[in-house]
Write a structure and sequence with these properties.
Layout: E1 2-12, E2 26-38, E3 41-46
Antiparallel strand pairs: 1-2, 2-3
Biased composition (Basic and acidic residues): 1-10
Region (Disordered): 1-33
Keywords: Cytoplasm, mRNA processing, mRNA splicing, Nucleus, Ribonucleoprotein
Amino acid sequence: MALENMKEMCTEVPKGGKGKKKSKPANKDRSISKLFLCRDSVVTNKWGPPPH
């Protein structure tokens, strides 16, 4: 199965350093032009420019 023009979204929580001000979690997202699936795992993925 092939999935096209997908958007991956995640939240990254920065590690706190000693004596530093707390950082806020950052929302990240990226586009995946094609993602190929085989049974229960991802076979390969191709990164490309974001869909228009």
